[in-house]
């Protein structure tokens, strides 16, 4: 049946509108975000950083070994108040943050409130606190180090829910999943695909695993090609190499369980 000119024009307009919806604006941006895992974003943001980092985003502190947080006591943990909540004072005063950046940080830290006893509270005069800042990358110290503790979430490459949660979990005392003491039962590290100068980033640590299972879906797990020199996988899940690793969204159920166990929620 022959279409009238007016119907043909209407169909053309609808087609153009649909094309714009499919290939521009928020829909395309959301797809792009989901296509890249958190590790890739963090390592890319930290490329060329002048900060001394271990495992890609852990600041090496001057006061203690970065890899020794929960060993020999709980000196690196945040204190539990008489209310039963673990209160972590924080600020987001960096002028480089936009209102939208601050909202994303606020949403990320408050995401812990509903399922754990950790409470991020605006800093008053507390001595120990986290200062979220837009520096040259995405990184954090491991656990509470005392005084002002900087968590860098650069406003250009780090303001995503999962990345902010990842760096915040470092500040709470959590290490990367693939460095835990029993990792060789669950993943194979492909050393031939890693620059020998970067191999230390895959050293196993004497971690406190809190009687929780290895978690491929943890927001603290590297992606399969982290630190790859040839595009091939540096981490292979075993026994099933097709298991997905490398988060794109946020904390897993096991991440939440570990927070609650570590801080006796």
What is this structure's SSE topology?
Elements lengths: L4 H19 L1 H11 L2 H8 L7 E2 L3 E2 L26 E6 L7 H12 L7 E5 L6 E5 L4 E2 L8 E6 L7 H12 L14 E3 L45 E3 L15 H10 L3
EC number: 3.4.24.-
Cofactor: Zn(2+)
InterPro entries: MetalloPept_cat_dom_sf, Peptidase_M12A, Peptidase_Metallo, ZnMP_hatching_enz
Short characterization:
Its EC number is 3.4.24.-. Pfam families: Astacin. The chain is an alpha/beta fold.
Descriptive overview:
This protein is an alpha/beta fold and 265 residues long. The chain has a domain at 43-176: Collagenase (Catalytic Domain). The chain has helices spanning 5-23, 25-35, 38-45, 99-110, 161-172, 253-262, and strands spanning 53-54, 58-59, 86-91, 118-122, 129-133, 138-139, 148-153, 187-189, 235-237. The strands form three sheets. The chain has a five-stranded mixed beta sheet. Strands 1-2 form a two-stranded antiparallel ribbon. Strand 1 (53-54) and strand 2 (58-59) form a beta hairpin. It is globular and about 50 Å long. The termini are far apart. 36% of the residues are buried. The model is unreliable at 1-34 (pLDDT under 50). Keywords: Disulfide bond, Hydrolase, Metal-binding, Metalloprotease, Protease, Signal, Zinc, Zymogen. It is an enzyme of class 3 (hydrolase).
């Amino acid at each position: 049946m022959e279409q009238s000119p007016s119907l043909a024009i209407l169909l053309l307009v609808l087609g153009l509108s649909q094309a714009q919806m499919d290939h521009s604006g928020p829909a395309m941006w959301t797809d792009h975000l989901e296509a890249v895992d958190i590790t890739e974003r963090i390592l890319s943001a930290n490329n060329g950083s002048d900060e001394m980092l271990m495992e890609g985003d852990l600041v090496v502190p001057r006061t203690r070994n970065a890899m020794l947080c929960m060993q020999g006591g709980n000196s690196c943990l945040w204190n539990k108040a008489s209310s039963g909540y673990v209160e972590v004072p924080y600020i987001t005063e960096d002028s480089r943050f936009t209102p939208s950046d601050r909202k994303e940080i606020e949403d990320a830290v408050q995401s812990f409130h509903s399922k754990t006893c950790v409470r991020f509270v605006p800093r008053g005069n507390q001595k120990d606190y986290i200062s979220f800042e837009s520096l040259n990358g995405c990184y954090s110290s491991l656990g509470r180090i005392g005084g002002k503790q900087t968590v860098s979430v650069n406003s250009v490459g780090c303001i995503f829910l999962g990345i902010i949660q990842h760096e915040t979990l470092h500040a709470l005392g959590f290490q990367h999943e693939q460095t835990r003491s029993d990792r060789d039962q669950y993943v194979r590290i492909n050393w031939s695909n890693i620059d020998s100068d970067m191999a230390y980033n895959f050293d196993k640590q004497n971690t406190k695993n809190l009687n929780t299972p290895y978690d491929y879906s943890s927001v603290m797990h590297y992606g399969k090609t982290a630190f790859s020199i040839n595009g091939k996988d540096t981490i292979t899940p075993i026994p099933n190499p097709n298991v997905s690793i490398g988060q794109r969204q946020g904390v897993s159920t096991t991440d939440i369980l570990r927070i609650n166990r570590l801080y006796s929620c």
